[in-house]
Amino acid sequence: VLDQIEAREAEVHAFVSVRGRDELLAEAKAVDEMRAAGEEVGPLAGLPVAIKDNICTKGLKTSCSSKMLENFVPPYDATVIEKVVAADGIILGKTNMDEFAMGSSTENSALGNTKNPRDLERVPGGSSGGSAAAVAADMTILALGSDTGGSIRQPASFCGVVGMKPTYGRVSRYGLVAYASSLDQIGPIAKCVEDAALLMGVIAGHDAKDSTCLDVNEPIVADLDNGAGKSYRMGVPAEYTQDGTDPAVQAAVDQTIAKLEALGHEVVPVELPHTDYAIPTYYLIASAEASSNLSRYAGYAYGHRAEDPESIDDMIARSRGEGFGDEVKRRIMLGTYALSSGYDEQYYEKALRVRRLIQQDFDAAFAKCDFIVHAVAPHPAFKLGEKTDDPLAMYLEDIFSVTANLAGLPAISVPVPQEDGTPPIGVQCVAPALREADLLAMAVAMQ
Ligand code: GLN
Questions:
Q1: Does a structural domain hold residue 340?
Q2: Active site located where (predicted)?
């Protein structure tokens, strides 16, 4: 992977930092020696793992691709990093992202954008675009991303790799820089479902350091061949085949459904009637929570501080003005407005009530089916710059991915190769809460 980084990183720009070659090779060698000495090695023995730059790594810069945290070096490791290291995985470096995970194309990075390694004129998706591009370009074997409204599944879809968001609470977020706390989850990006399952198995589990982390007994990964010979009911929601969906995306979904039917699974129509409200609900809740979470960046504790402030107010205002990019500012303003006295009932609280209706849609659908299958995004990977001037058009691309976050459900994106040579298109499978083991087995069948 180091040779591949040397060959492709200059054009793709998936990483914001890569650890030193000697150090990395020494770590790999140490694992080899353990194995040679007959010692037991962990499940990730010697495998490189690229880490999205919003996951804290002790001693390694964690910038969130923001000027605000450009020089921030965390004094501790996130729980997922401790787990990867304990499993003998090798932390390869940090990957580029939309600033503070806000975006769908990695074009909001303050450190330059990432290109789709399968077509350099196209975006890799976002916000975990660097992680997905690194996996797709063979610059790493595994990667971690975070998914608040699709940021693992959508870049995995655009780059033709596998990306999975677990049930809310399945993976500790201790050390993940918070964007929208009721939605954020960490998950794996990999070349195939089996690899994603391997990393998922390592990072999941209860952690006392994250109060939202669940303490449950349901297995996260079980027998991946479990789907074989079984007949599941696959729910297909009518609301997700919208007029605006690209024909190539619809064809990929249809192809996957046909494949699953041929394997003996039954297709059942389901309804998710509140889908139309998902985008405004998501953007209100995510922006409101972001405006609160990002209030900690004020120039006094850590992060960017403006030079020669005249007063504390001046320091806070200028530090934030200089440190945050346009999209982050837009969300902070939107979120602050939605939470402000006199408006919270009208916006934030109303959004929470609609969120409940969206969750109930899924409960009703899962009474009729075992899994739900639909697109990850309405369009395949779009061209660089195509949507940067139109934030609303960018937000609308998230219609099929934000619902799983609003409902807290596990979901996976599995690529469907395209015969015309354009980048693969991901198809999504969503499962009821805590059914990751079955979801992974189903995803193996989708491949
Ligand atoms: N594109 C969505 C947003 O901009 C999702 C981002 C994410 O999942 N981190 O908020």
A1: no
A2: 52 (charge relay system), 127 (charge relay system), 151 (acyl-ester intermediate)
What ipTM was reported for this prediction? 0.98
Mutate to test the pocket of ligand 1, among 107, 181, 402, 428 (most ligand atoms within 8 A of CB): 402
368 C-alpha to center of ligand 1: Å? 29
Q: Cβ–Cβ contacts within 10 Å for residue 211, how many?
A: 9
How many angstroms is it from 61 CA to the middle of ligand 1? Answer: 22
Of 66, 127, 131, 172, which is the active-site residue? 127
Q: Does residue 419 lie in a domain region?
A: yes
Annotated catalytic residue within 104, 109, 151, 401: 151
What residues are paired with 234 via a beta bridge? 267, 371
Is residue 93 situated within a structural domain? Answer: yes
Active site residue 368: no
**Active site annotation includes 52:** yes
- Rounded distance from Cα 146 to ligand 1 centre (Å): 9
CA separation for the pair 279, 283 (Å, rounded): 6
Nearest 5 degrees, angle CA 253-CA 257-CA 263?
150
CATH number at residue 148: 3.90.1300.10
Residue 313 pLDDT greater than 90, yes or no: yes
- Residue 30 is inside which H or E element, if any? helix 21-36
- Could you tell me the residue range of the domain that residue 79 belongs to? 1-267+373-447
Question: For the chain, what is the domain count?
Answer: 1
Q: Does residue 425 form part of some domain?
A: yes
- pLDDT tens digits along 247-297: 999 999 999 999 999 999 999 999 999 999 999 999 999 999 999 999 999
Sequential DSSP letters for 218-274: S-SS--GGGGTT---EEEEEGGGS-TTS-HHHHHHHHHHHHHHHHTTPEEEEE--TT
CA–CA separation, 179 vs 48, rounded Å? 26
* Pairwise CA distance, residues 396 & 415, whole Å: 21
127 is catalytic: yes
pLDDT for position 29: 97
- Residue 345 alpha carbon to ligand 1 centre in Å: 24
* Burial call 333-351: b when 16+ CB within 10 Å, e when fewer: ebbbbbbeeeeeeebbeeb
Among protein residues, the one with the nearest Cα to ligand 1's atom 5 is: 149
Q: Cα(71)–Cα(284) distance, rounded to whole angstroms?
A: 30
Ligand 1 pocket by C-beta < 6 Å: which residues?
Answer: 101-104, 127, 147-151, 179, 286, 398
Residue 327 DSSP SS3 = helix
